[in-house]
Amino acid sequence: MTRWFLAAGTGTYTELDPLDHVPAELEGMIRLFGEELSYDTVPALLGRSADGVRRELGGGPDRCFGPDDVVVVYYSGHGLRSEGRHYLAGVDSVEAAPAATALAAEDLVRLLAERGARRLLLILHTCHAAAGAAAAGQAMVGQFAQYPEAYQDQQLVSFSVLCASRAYEAAYGQAFAQALEAAVRDEKCGGTCAKNLALQSLIDHMNDRLQEQHATHAVFLSEDSEHAFFPNPRYKDLPEGIPLSERRARSWPGGTGFVGRSDALGRMDAWLAEPAPPGRWLAVTGAPGTGKSALLREFHRRLTEGEGSGEAAVLLVDVRHRSVEHLLARIAESPLPGAGGVLVVDGVEEAESPDGDDDGPRMMARVLAELAGARPDIRVLATVSKHLVPASGTVEEVDLDREDARDDMAGHAARLLVEPDGPGSRSGWSAEQAREAAPGIVRRARGNHLLLRLIALRTAMTPPAPDGRGSDEDGETPTVAHALWDVLRARSRDEGEFRKVCVLLTGLAFSRGAGLPWASGLWPDITARVCREEEPLTDDDVRRALDVAAPLIAEGVDPAGRSAYRLHHEEYAQALRDAAPRGTAERAERAIRDEQDDRARKHPDRRRDPCLAEHSGKAAPDSEEEVRARVLIDAASTWVRRTYAFFTGRLPSWARGFPELVLIATARGSVIEETTDGQGRETVVVRARPDSGLYIEKFGEKFGR
């Protein structure tokens, strides 16, 4: 697969006002897509006529793109409107004669489609750009069936348009391009876990910066999900579940900073080397904070680097706050079903039930036992609480509570004192000072790896004494909660920042699933509702919280593929929940519903956010009245679909007369609101009544209810 970026535009015209920013803007976009997003680029088509653009961007089968190629076209210049069509002005375009002297937006799509572009993103930086998006979309729907036979196997499968302004708005200077660059480069749109940047997240970020214009986007064709036109430049191929500070600090494979546990690793290596008895799997057990996850991930790292696994497939799955369905889906996507191998599962004791009850961990352990029994060619290894280990002999156990790991813990404490934010970071401690102070930290932690981590992180923020001792080296053993507050307060700049960090972490403590995404403001907005913040929580507040609490936060991916954040350990989350005022859990549930309702009112054209859907849980079952209504709706839908297919099959041009054919139905009536804005544009909003839902079908494809 090759990613192609093509830039075109005009800054100097013979008949229109000049746009001096265009040359620099196109060069900036070429650098952005080429250097940061890994696209292949070519010199910009600058100052061409409409015919010149057609000749250089178009072509026949001899200039076709590959079947898996991704194509992004960026156009900057004047936009002209005439007879309901949107035109891209060339160097010699005349405002009074756009059809003869300019390039219609839909023709630009046709040019690329004729060259076999199957995955296309069109970015229009012109005035009234959204009108061009609508025209391009209609052309795609109405015309692609008329391609020459040579192109029948190369039709578009993914097509989106990103617009600098709405259909009735002007675009101003380089504001759009600068906003796009800022969005791509901001961690808010994607941290280190998300492989791609979602178009909607980029649009929301851009509109926060733009003042007098509003960027929009439209997806006219997509594959299973929105295509990844924007690969995330910050993405790191690391396992889920490691602290955010370590994700930021290193790449995988590489130095992990793991020390000790040689006996446990030896037992795990021996288990892997011997023939697996049918029906047996290996459970790594131990009290919270004994280092189960760290041990499991070190074992996984050694397997992926070829230390003992040979050619066997290895799959690591983090099931914290996830259900059995997630585990089975990951297995189905991997080579394990056909080739066998090693399945490494972390976080069984924090798994969720599909029904939202408390039986998730037990269900997950039962599935692992059944999998090991049914597929002896798949070795199953998991971290699990002791009470979940069955007594039936279907599991072997590595019990970290029984192992004397004081020497290992001293090495771990010394590393944290020197590198508190992961390999490569530095504190004010030397390696020699850290080795001298580490035994005292181990004594205070009393064998608890979680406490050891917190105490070491707090100690690393304090300059060592001349004798190498930490200030609290011989103090009493704190609780996890007190140690957590000490770390956060020591890493914060002042008491006000400490309070805001605690507020934002409290929002994560009451979240579900993968956590809360920062993109589109979900994390700060929901948290402000949960914690009753009088002032909005800003992006700068989130940035500081991620920096302060980086060793205590884990980054994952939410159902929409965006970076989402949660507490790295359930003990941290429990400490924050215990410290929250009474009624916070109920407010958290209401906050999700209120945020969902507010966003639906603000953006009625958008689907429900997948993160909000995940947090809102399963909907109540339909009533008998709702079920009967659904039968009638399905019957009506079938009739409309067959009628539409009948006419379009016999009269292909008929489809162009109904480009917006939509069936909208409700079980208990609807509310229809019609409004007109200042530019005379009419908007019709259809809402279901509170106790019902909308059924929508467009162009024969269901896309929501």
From TrEMBL:
Superkingdom: Bacteria
InterPro entries in the cross-refs: AAA+_ATPase, Caspase-like_dom_sf, P-loop_NTPase, Pept_C14_caspase
SMART domains registered for this protein in UniProt: AAA (SM00382)
Any matching Pfam family: Peptidase_C14
Region feature (Disordered): 418-440, 576-623
Chain intervals with Basic and acidic residues compositional bias: 584-617
Single Gene Ontology MF annotation: cysteine-type endopeptidase activity
Biological processes annotated in GO: proteolysis
SUPFAM superfamilies on file: Caspase-like, P-loop containing nucleoside triphosphate hydrolases
Protein's recorded name: Uncharacterized protein
Native organism: Streptomyces lincolnensis
